[in-house]
Write a structure and sequence with these properties.
Distance between the termini: 45 Å
Helix content: over 70%
Order of helices and strands: HHHHH
Oligomer: single chain
Largest sheet: none
Radius of gyration: 19 Å
Strand content: under 5%
Number of helices: 5
Length: 126
């Protein structure tokens, strides 16, 4: 996390929201309080926070898929379908305007491992 637990406690961020994107939630909540929760005021801060949440979701999906291929048997159809979905998500994340939020190296490394697993699966069928 980029924010210390003391700062999160001082900003009164609930424990359920203290995740990888909490450093963006603190300024968003300050903006919301300053503008009395007007829905059209804090758009930029909200967009940054929601994009961070999406990137974290995609990163978590990559980790789950990498773990599932390492420990259990997956059918080839499910493997290829999941690869296509995750590649589309990867392209969406990396082509977004806020590239600095996406840890591209981590996503690329997991995607490479995932594609090697697909190639291994295809090689086993031949």
């Amino acid at each position: 996390m980029k924010v210390s637990p003391e700062e999160l406690k001082a900003a009164r961020v609930d424990v359920g929201y203290r995740d990888y994107c909490a450093h963006l939630l603190v300024p968003l909540n300050k903006c919301r309080q300053a503008t009395r929760f007007m829905p059209f005021e804090c758009g930029h801060e909200r967009h940054l926070y929601e994009h961070c949440q999406y990137v974290e979701y995609v990163r978590h999906s990559f980790r789950l898929v990498a773990a599932s291929t390492a420990c259990c048997e997956v059918t080839l159809g499910a493997l290829l379908k999941r690869t296509i979905v995750l590649r589309a998500a990867l392209l969406c994340v990396t082509s977004h305007a806020h590239r600095t939020l996406a840890p591209v190296e981590l996503i690329d490394a997991v995607l490479c491992r995932w594609l090697r697993a697909v190639e291994k699966k295809l090689g086993a069928l031949e």
